[in-house]
Amino acid sequence: MLFRYLCLWLLSAVPLVAAAEQQPTLNVYTHPSFAAEWGPGPAIKVAFELECGCTLNFTVMESAGDILQRLRLEGQSTRADVVLGLDTATMETARQTGLLGKHLRRLDNLALPINWDDEHFVPFDWGYFAFVYDTEQLAEPPASLDALINAPDDLKIIIQDPRTSTPGLGLLLWMHSVYGDEASVKWQQLKGKILATTQSWSDGYFSLFMNGEAPMILSYSTSPAYHMAIDNTDRYQAAEFAEGHYLQVEVAALVASSQQQALAREFLDFMLTPNFQRHIPLKNVMYPAIDLGDELPDIFERLIKPSQTLFMAPVDVARDRRQLVNDWLDAMIR
Amino acid sequence: MLELDQLSFRYPGQTTGWQFGFSVAPGHCVAVHGASGTGKSTVLNLIAGFLEPDSGAIRLAGQAIQNLSPWERPVSSVFQEHNLFEHLDVATNIGLGLHSGLKLTSDQRQMIAQSLDRAGLAGFGYRMPAELSGGQRQRIALLRAILRRKPVLLLDEPMTGLDPDAKHNLRTMLLEEKARGAILVLASHDEEDRKVLADQVWNL
Amino acid sequence: MINRPSNAPLSHPYWQLVPGIVLGTGLIGLVLLGLGSLLVTAGHLDFSVVWSSRYLRGVVTFTLWQAVLSVLLSLLVAVPVALALARFHDFTGRALLLRLMELSLVLPTIVAVSGIIGVYGRQGWLTTMVSEWFPHHGWNLYGVNGILLAHVFFNAPLAARILLQTLEAVPAPRLRIASQLGLRGWWLWRTVHWPAMRPILPGLAALVFTLCFTSFAIIMTLGGGPATTTLEVAIYQALRFEFDFAQAALLAVIQLVICGSLWWLAFQKQMPTSLMPGRRFSNPITLRYSVSQRCLGAVLLWVFFVFLTLPLFAIILRGAPALVPLNGIPALYFQLLPATGRSLLIAIPAGLGAVLGALLTLAATHKSSGKMLSAIPVTAGYLPLVVPPLVLGTGLFLLLRPGLGNTAQGWALVSFINGLMALPFVIQVLRGPLAELDDNSRRLADQLGVLGWYRWRWLYWPRMRRPIALGLAYGTALSMGDFGVIALFGSPGQPTLPVLMYQQLSSYRVADAAGTGLWLLGLLMLIFVVLSAISRPAIRTQRVTASPSVVEPEHA
């Protein structure tokens, strides 16, 4: 029996080895939701392969953090040509590895809430962090960060840990952008309302929020779009905060050591065309990085439109992150 | 001829040890005699190779065997109890004596069945040891020892605790073996056993 | 001479020793290399950082504290449950309860935690129900309560399962004597049960301690906040987000030292297992139990049964809508089936490898003389528990970096590491039953030349097949439900089951993810049921076939 399984196992690996083709291959490191069957990945692969006469390969890492980690570990010997899925909170650290190349694109058709003139990173989507609430449990959500902080402690929220999660770090930067040095005090006031600080957004969303454990969870302003468009329910909505919302931009970059520089740049160009971008709104549940015009699903009109965009320069994030996390820990443990 | 030549042994921590020296001719039986705790089993274990002597020699037909592993020695043992593997049926228990990996020829299989018949245990091949009486278990153990056709049979109180019928059965089987030229070394505190089987006695 | 016994294949004593030692040395070397490559990359370590940082001191203290509490609670539940199971063979649903107990350890954390929350959370059934009667019960899952509850849920069944295996192996003569003397209560415990459990308790406690000490996702989800952080979280943070190899290596070393010294202590206290005779007698021995004891046992087992099943029901209720075909076959199946195939492809070799590794390791442990030599397999068996997978994986990655090529290699590596991670559990399952043969059987086997492979085939295999099946089930199931390792090395576009679930989770497909969770639960259950069924003794039909006797313990 053992032998038979072993043979089966080995046999099944053969086609994978044999599949290496003559066409040039572009290797893209990305995160799981992007490459999922229902994510934007498969459609984008088809569309790009039609244009480039190449094979597009996704290698899936657990999270944006892992893409960066993998790149660092592999260094010059990496097989990646493009990394896709880093964000504004991690991109400076990625740049400092010196492993990424300049994109040399003009990026003149971007539609972001901020100006973008980074020479390494090309944005492909964006969104705001926001608290999503369950309208059946909470009729009147707090209208501002201040209101949330000053709400009675029986309003429970779920957040993520800034040490392990992107939205978690987003909230930390959000609080810092609004309150500056007072953030620690505000965190202490918020503490009583935090039901759980989960490792990842998924843990919180799946295990806690969708189980009805708390009426509010730290998520994205675009989250309701999925529930409205795909689940056909208006039950989950984002609370708009008067102080403004913190921005996250997801980016891609080409790897300096890649043998496929031209192809990689072709991909970066392709990224900012409707053929790529039209898959972003409902399949990645984020705002597209270019103006899609009529192609933007109507649902997106019903999302909150923050009055103010909060954003810290990636350089500052890379410099201050550790200190901010430590301050946060201090405040939360005290 | 089985010879024990100044064979000495001492358990760790023991002050005085034993020294054994006797010889038995083919077709003969030596009874090792002594009260319990005097080393009857020790001598059998030394011959079987379960214990290592401090000095001296064991020879069979002039060949020294004291340095051989238990499985290389031309001997078969029958203990007072626990002679069978409890989780294996009777036929398997016997079969393992013929080939240690149970790779048996059809002749050998037949031989097992026939000898069970002759010992009055026809059809017992499929039984598990736990289903048998003490006398039946001992008969099967002896049967296996006999089928192995080793020149030396080591008997460690093989009949203790059995009823008279069972004892009689076993003695008959042993006498047959003796008649065929096997060397028997018998440890028994039973007067009757010695009288029936032994040709000579070694007193401890 | 009819037979040439020394021809038994693999009968040289080295065959029992060398493979295990080689394996052990290999594993230790791998871990050292993994850790070493981290340390080298890190440069220099400064232990004073830990003692001077209030946060890190807190982390170490909390980690220790919750682990100790979890061990005590888990054993407090496991011992009575194991005793009750050993006593009452006729408990209705015994087989089902045993399968459930096996399941809880291998359930992917996120699935199990969601089930626990569905029952004991703020909006959980039980909490809601209790709230109606006692509005001010003050129960709050989030915090230490939740951590302990989840740890007991995961570990008490494992501990009880291992203890039961030991209790079932109590030599029949001892039970007979107890039965004859009419021992009961305290005396029965002192003369029969305690001596049986005592030898494995230190190791078991160390196992549970290590599992709780390195617990990660449970603590973060249920812990309530960063005040409840374990070392493993801090290591993750250092490695994933700070890229601070020095800090990660430092914390990993601290973890290694704490858990390692515990294992060392546990093994100092270890009683020799070879004292345990392997003989069993056919008739189950009836011990005297009073009516009140029987009632108490039944109640205890029922409560435990409910404790284990409630969260599973929550998982079933949540996942069923995605799986039940209302109109046509749900599209989810077209993702589930191929993912299941890929998962099995990784999990089955991992399970087989873990069993083989465990057998070799244990054989070498029995065979090796000398403290240094016997320390190798023992250490290797437990090291995978103590070294955080992330550290091991990162280290290995640094080592293998240039060589890691195609998908197949990646999957083989994932399979290998999964097997490695399962090794300690499989060892725990096999350790008791693989005790040396008793003196009589050993002498008999020696004389008959039943050595090497033959000894394994005829003397060990018949009584090992059920423990091996259980070990295989643990190994396969652990690998099947593993989220961590596969993500570490990156997976191709085609997902395995956990990766599929991860994808669904990270793209709002909550219902599908719940369905996948349920599918995984069913599959894991199936693995245990199937392996338990095929390892049941066959009915004797052939002549001279090894048929495990009826006296084999019923549970394995």
Automatic annotation (TrEMBL), chain A:
Biological process, per Gene Ontology: thiamine transport; transmembrane transport
Protein location: Periplasm
Keyword Transport found? yes
Q: Which CDD domains would you find in this protein's record?
A: PBP2_TbpA
The protein's name in its UniProt record: Thiamine-binding periplasmic protein
The family database entries (NCBIfam families) matched by this protein are listed as: sfuA, thiB
Q: Where is the signal peptide?
A: 1-19
Keyword Glycoprotein annotated: no
The source organism is Marinobacter halophilus
Any single Gene Ontology cellular-component annotation: outer membrane-bounded periplasmic space
Which superkingdom, per the lineage? Bacteria
Recorded hits in InterPro entries, A to Z, give:
SBP, SBP_1_CS, ThiB, ThiB-like
Keyword set for this entry?
Periplasm, Signal, Transport
Family per record: Belongs to the bacterial solute-binding protein 1 family.
- Extract one GO molecular function annotation from the record: thiamine pyrophosphate binding
From TrEMBL, chain B:
Q: Which residues form a coiled coil?
A: none
- Give start and end of each ABC transporter domain: 2-204
- Keyword Cell inner membrane included in the entry's annotation: yes
Tell me which UniProt keywords the record has, alphabetically: ATP-binding, Cell inner membrane, Cell membrane, Membrane, Nucleotide-binding, Translocase, Transport
Per UniProt, what is one Pfam family of this protein?
ABC_tran
Among its keywords, does the record have Cell inner membrane? yes
InterPro entries from the UniProt entry: AAA+_ATPase (IPR003593), ABC_SmlMolc_Importer (IPR050093), ABC_transporter-like_ATP-bd (IPR003439), ABC_transporter-like_CS (IPR017871), P-loop_NTPase (IPR027417)
Gene Ontology MF annotations: ATP binding; ATP hydrolysis activity
Q: Which parts pass through the membrane?
A: none
State the name under which the record lists this protein. ABC transporter
UniProtKB/TrEMBL annotation, chain C:
Which GO CC terms are listed, alphabetically? plasma membrane
Q: Which GO terms describe its molecular function?
A: transmembrane transporter activity
**Keywords for the protein's UniProt record, in alphabetical order:** Cell inner membrane, Cell membrane, Membrane, Repeat, Transmembrane, Transmembrane helix, Transport
InterPro entries assigned: MetI-like (IPR000515), MetI-like_sf (IPR035906), ThiP_ABC_transpt (IPR005947)
Residue ranges occupied by any ABC transmembrane type-1 domain in the UniProt entry: 60-266, 339-535
Its membrane topology, per UniProt?
Answer: Multi-pass membrane protein
Q: Where in the cell is it found?
A: Cell inner membrane; Cell membrane
Q: What Gene Ontology terms for biological process does this UniProt record contain?
A: thiamine transport
Q: Which residues cross the membrane?
A: 21-44, 64-88, 100-121, 141-164, 200-225, 245-267, 295-317, 344-363, 375-399, 411-430, 468-490, 510-534
Subunit details: The complex is composed of two ATP-binding proteins (ThiQ), two transmembrane proteins (ThiP) and a solute-binding protein (ThiB).
- Into which family does the record put it? Belongs to the binding-protein-dependent transport system permease family.
From the Swiss-Prot or TrEMBL record, give the protein name. Thiamine transport system permease protein ThiP
Native organism is Marinobacter halophilus
Question: What's the gene?
Answer: thiP
